[in-house]
TrEMBL record:
<dbReference type="GO" id="GO:0004601">
    <property type="term" value="F:peroxidase activity"/>
</dbReference>
<protein>
    <recommendedName>
        <fullName>Deferrochelatase</fullName>
        <ecNumber>1.11.1.-</ecNumber>
    </recommendedName>
</protein>
<comment type="function">
    <text>Involved in the recovery of exogenous heme iron. Extracts iron from heme while preserving the protoporphyrin ring intact.</text>
</comment>
<dbReference type="InterPro" id="IPR048327">
    <property type="entry name" value="Dyp_perox_N"/>
</dbReference>
<feature type="domain" description="Dyp-type peroxidase C-terminal">
    <location>
        <begin position="222"/>
        <end position="407"/>
    </location>
</feature>
<feature type="compositionally biased region" description="Polar residues">
    <location>
        <begin position="214"/>
        <end position="237"/>
    </location>
</feature>
<dbReference type="GO" id="GO:0030313">
    <property type="term" value="C:cell envelope"/>
</dbReference>
<keyword id="KW-0575">Peroxidase</keyword>
<dbReference type="GO" id="GO:0020037">
    <property type="term" value="F:heme binding"/>
</dbReference>
<comment type="similarity">
    <text>Belongs to the DyP-type peroxidase family.</text>
</comment>
<dbReference type="Pfam" id="PF20628">
    <property type="entry name" value="Dyp_perox_C"/>
</dbReference>
<keyword id="KW-0456">Lyase</keyword>
<keyword id="KW-0479">Metal-binding</keyword>
<dbReference type="GO" id="GO:0046872">
    <property type="term" value="F:metal ion binding"/>
</dbReference>
<feature type="domain" description="Dyp-type peroxidase N-terminal">
    <location>
        <begin position="67"/>
        <end position="211"/>
    </location>
</feature>
<dbReference type="InterPro" id="IPR048328">
    <property type="entry name" value="Dyp_perox_C"/>
</dbReference>
<dbReference type="InterPro" id="IPR006311">
    <property type="entry name" value="TAT_signal"/>
</dbReference>
């Protein structure tokens, strides 16, 4: 389908109202708040019987300074997956694959059909805020003979005592994140990306997630995670002076010239975090609020105010104890408690049926973005690992770290500056 000449801009307020899900200021739980809108517009399909709704017509640009899917408002449906290059495939095959994937992403994000063998799954819909984001894992650089161009920030994450990681659902040469506000549009993109891989790469793992649908609440509000917590309050915001510095790699230095291809990019940490919901639901409301450090109904700190009120970590209650407990998730993960360390959390919730123990296999596909994971994710997770009250109710089951290069210029494919530089 093509755009009409009556394209109109979707309001920033409506788009930001869709931002939802997980992370009441913390690492284990997080969502994007105050996200940047990346060229979202409303379009009318030519030859149709009427205009698409605002949700269906919203379009995110493929080309630009940043890849889509980082500061884009959270979408209702997501697929996150990793690929390994096929045996014998190297730099040449990887470049051809990224060229195919980039062209497919560009077309689908514009509301067009795939270039070859389109499945027709999404023919009735608009772009629905579709984004497709690509990254490279640590092992990608050995496979392509590019180890000299692998940044130090991509070194494997340290082990954490609370990890229960499945290696088959962790890491991978290539990483893809797909998001859309319609499930069929997201699945259409997933199928196209998988088909494009051809003989060059095979799926290592795939995880599927969801968030609250746009317009599901009477007015824009922070969403809730599967524990019922208002989630995503304390994310870094683009209006903050140091937002770019925290989230994106500097365009020029520091570091050797061979790492310059990452200038303007970001690093994604991806963790499958299962929530032990049956155990959580056994806790009283007061106990749950003590674990998090926030009011469950409003998201406000236990020290008072509204959802956006700063935590008063020094406030003492009538019993002589800190109102926000020393092991509360909100306290331990607060940037003020971690030397200012912060990351942009942009997750999806998941529910994959019933686990072997009979409990819901549900939780958070935690995805966070930062300029340097050693200054963002790692120091905060180390503190959470040592004493977060929430740790008793969650289980980290898979993990990955990926270098996500900057957005492609017109005529470029994602990663071209690495693979052809």
């Amino acid at each position: 389908m093509t755009e009409s000449n009556t394209d109109i801009e979707i309001s920033r307020r409506r788009l930001l109202g869709t931002v939802g899900a997980a992370g009441a200021t913390g690492l284990a739980l997080g969502a994007t708040g105050g996200a940047l809108v990346q060229s979202a517009i409303a379009a009318t399909p030519s030859g149709g019987t009427g205009s698409l709704s605002a949700v269906g017509a919203a379009r995110v640009a493929f080309h630009g300074e940043r890849q889509a899917g980082i500061t884009t408002p959270l979408q209702a449906k997501g697929h996150v997956l990793a690929f390994d290059l096929a045996p014998g495939a190297g730099r040449k095959e990887a470049a051809a694959l990224m060229r195919r994937w980039s062209e497919t992403a560009r077309r689908l994000m514009a509301g067009e059909t795939a270039a070859t063998a389109d499945t027709g799954i999404a023919l009735d819909a608009g772009p629905c805020s579709l984004t497709v984001t690509f990254g490279f894992g640590h092992s990608f650089f050995e496979r392509t003979g590019l180890t000299a161009r692998r940044p130090a920030a991509l070194d494997p994450l340290p082990d954490f005592s609370s990890d229960r990681l499945d290696p088959q659902r962790s890491n991978g040469d290539l990483w893809v994140q797909i998001g859309a506000d319609d499930g069929l549009v997201a699945f259409h993109a997933l199928r196209a990306i998988q088909k494009d891989a051809g003989d060059a790469a095979r799926v290592r793992w795939q995880m599927d997630g969801f968030n609250r649908s746009p317009g599901a609440t009477a007015s824009p509000m922070t969403s809730r995670n599967l524990m019922g917590q208002v989630d995503g309050t304390n994310n870094p915001k683009p209006s903050e002076a140091d937002f770019e510095k925290r989230i994106f790699v500097p365009a020029a230095g520091p570091g050797p010239a061979e790492h310059a291809w990452m200038g303007g990019g970001s690093y994604a940490v991806v963790r499958r975090i299962r929530m032990l919901l049956d155990e959580w639901d056994k806790q009283s409301l007061a106990q749950q609020e003590q674990v998090i450090g926030r009011n469950k109904a409003t998201g406000a700190p236990l020290t008072g105010g509204s959802e956006t009120t700063a935590l008063d970590l020094d406030k003492i209650g009538p019993d002589g104890k800190a109102v926000i407990p020393a092991n509360a998730h909100a306290r331990i993960s607060a940037p003020a408690q971690n030397g200012g360390a912060a990351m942009l959390r942009r997750p999806f919730s998941f529910h994959d049926g019933t686990a072997e123990d009979g409990a819901p296999d549900a939780g958070l596909l935690f995805i966070c973005w930062q300029a340097d994971p050693l200054r963002g994710f790692v120091p905060v997770q180390r503190k959470l690992d040592r004493g977060d009250a929430l740790s008793a109710f969650i289980r980290h089951e898979s993990s990955g770290l990926y270098a996500v290069p900057p957005g492609p210029r017109d005529g470029e494919y994602v990663g071209q500056r690495l693979l052809e530089g």
